[in-house]
Structure to design on (506 residues):
């Protein structure tokens, strides 16, 4: 199964396996990773699943959709060019090894 | 297996008996299998957490363009022009969705919170010393009926039209009955009022309605689409919150231990509402229509067939929730699907959560005891679950 590493705002690293087709948000919640709230359950509506994509096969990431774009404008922590909503990132084999950093706040 | 061997049930999800006690009917439905044919209406029913999610997330197979209710727009003419957000699929859907997402963003919500707090305090203060109240007309309904149109930027007159229109919108999700026909005999003037209040000229400055027309001015939407999105707002934003807040209030009144937890720690208000959205909430079901023949857990579903997805059953599914029938405001509710899931998952859910959180915080800060003082009554609407009456005995908090 492809793996993703989450780096907490305290720099703690956690690597988890994410089933293909699952979102990073779901996987993080399932693995009890602190720093992802996912209050809207993945409808790109709450911006509490914000992550900064640090490294990996960036070409394999889906483009930022129009709805995601609106929510990224309203994140609690600063938006950077690395910002994504983890509920819109669905796991693929090509994304194996992705590293994402969690923002200091989500709400 | 083929559709010849499908599991069939004579359950009628729109009958008074079903609506009086949907949860035991859901238990029965879940025990029958992953998908059940409801012969009374010639529709399918899915009722497990694990089977509803794939239906709601595979929009290519399970379309919203067939209509939000029982009526099948692939086969019959809708009563009003279909919603341009709820009743469309991609590629049309993201455009309207992005515009509404922007207007309801966390930025907007942060700005309106203080106003919600003021209004919630005012409505709770007005009843706190009254002893016995009917909480639905006297406490629950007035609050969304003020804060919602205030947020949109609507004038103060005629707002009760929102309630009648909401009844019609959600009434149309069910079958045509004498109740529905009587209601719809009054549709003309109400619909005219609503459409007039969706127009640009009707929007007061600084509201969400004006933000929708800003999207029109930016070229993201046409003038007509702007009006239709305001209509979506007015359709979906009032009854839903009244009903869900009312049911949450009843759950708290019926579970004194849970009310005590909230009263001691009002910061649990948001969690309490989230748990109520799983446990007993306004949106019990929604519909999808197949775009093609599809195999569903071994059963063949034909093209253009309706599937009724019971969100209310997903919330009580023991395969997903421990002690599913227990109302526990400290439960880890993440993953509950009372607001739907996928691309159509409620666009107003953060607005609804804020509205309810502020309401229950105000209540916990001002009310000491809260007990049922008589039987509550369900309201009659096939599209939403809610109460028309909730008699409560209350005492104010001593400070
Ligand atoms: C507790 C209150 C509420 C509940 C339980 C609720 C429930 C839902 C559900 C289950 C859906 C999904 C429908 C589907 O997938 O077919 C939905 C969609 C929607 N809701 Fe809500 N809702 C609530 C409050 C609101 C509010 C306050 C607004 C407006 C501010 C709103 C606006 C909408 C709109 C426009 C849609 C269609 C979204 C789309 O199709 O992309 N709702 N709601
Ligand atoms: S989970 Fe809400 S925006 Fe991603």
């Amino acid at each position: 199964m492809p793996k993703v590493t989450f780096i907490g705002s305290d720099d703690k690293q956690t690597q988890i396996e994410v089933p293909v087709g699952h979102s990073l948000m779901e996987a993080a919640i399932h693995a009890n990773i602190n720093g992802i709230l996912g209050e809207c359950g993945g409808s790109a509506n709450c911006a509490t699943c914000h992550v900064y994509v640090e490294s990996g096969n960036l070409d394999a990431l889906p483009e930022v959709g129009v709805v995601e774009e609106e929510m990224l404008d309203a994140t609690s922590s600063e938006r950077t060019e690395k910002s994504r909503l983890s509920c819109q990132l669905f796991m693929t084999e090509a994304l194996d090894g992705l590293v994402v950093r969690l923002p200091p706040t989500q709400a | 297996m083929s559709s010849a061997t499908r599991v069939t049930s004579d359950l009628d999800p729109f009958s008074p008996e079903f609506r009086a006690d949907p949860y035991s009917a859901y238990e029965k439905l879940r025990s029958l299998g992953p998908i059940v044919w409801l012969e009374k209406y010639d529709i399918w029913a899915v009722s497990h957490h694990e089977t509803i999610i794939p239906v709601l997330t595979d929009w290519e197979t399970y379309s919203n363009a067939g209509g939000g209710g029982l009526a099948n727009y692939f086969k019959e003419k809708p009563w009003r022009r279909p919603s341009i957000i709820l009743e469309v699929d991609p590629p049309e859907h993201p455009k309207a969705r992005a515009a509404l997402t922007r207007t309801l963003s966390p930025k907007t919500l942060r700005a309106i919170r203080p106003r919600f707090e003021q209004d919630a305090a005012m409505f709770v203060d007005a009843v706190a010393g009254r002893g016995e109240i009917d909480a639905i007309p006297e406490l629950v309904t007035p609050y969304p009926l003020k804060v919602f149109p205030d947020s949109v930027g609507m004038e103060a007159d005629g707002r009760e039209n929102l309630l009648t229109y909401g009844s019609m919108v959600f009434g149309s999700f069910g079958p045509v009955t004498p109740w529905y026909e009587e209601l719809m005999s009054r549709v003309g003037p109400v619909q005219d009022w609503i459409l007039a209040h969706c127009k640009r000229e009707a929007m007061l400055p600084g509201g969400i309605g004006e933000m929708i027309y800003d999207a029109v001015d930016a070229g993201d939407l046409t003038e007509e689409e702007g009006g239709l999105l305001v209509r979506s707002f007015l359709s979906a934003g009032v009854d839903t919150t009244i009903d869900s807040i009312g049911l949450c209030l009843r759950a708290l009144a019926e579970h004194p231990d849970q009310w005590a937890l909230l009263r001691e720690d009002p910061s649990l208000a948001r969690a309490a509402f989230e748990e109520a959205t799983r446990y007993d909430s306004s949106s019990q079901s929604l519909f999808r229509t197949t775009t093609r023949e599809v195999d569903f857990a071994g059963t063949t579903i034909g093209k253009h067939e309706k599937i009724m997805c019971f969100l209310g059953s997903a919330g009580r599914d023991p395969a997903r929730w421990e002690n599913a029938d227990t109302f526990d405001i400290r439960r880890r509710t993440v993953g509950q699907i009372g607001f739907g899931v996928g691309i159509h998952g409620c666009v107003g859910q953060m607005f609804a959560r804020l509205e309810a959180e502020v309401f229950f915080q105000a209540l916990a800060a001002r009310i000491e005891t809260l007990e049922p003082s008589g039987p509550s009554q369900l309201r009659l609407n096939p599209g939403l679950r809610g109460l028309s009456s909730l008699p409560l005995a209350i005492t104010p908090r001593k400070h």
About this structure: Chain B has a mean pLDDT of 95. Chain B touches chain A at residues 94-95, 97-98, 101-102, 104-107, 334-337, 339-347, 349-350, 353 (CB under 8 Å). The radius of gyration of chain B is 21 Å. Chain B has one domain: 3-396.
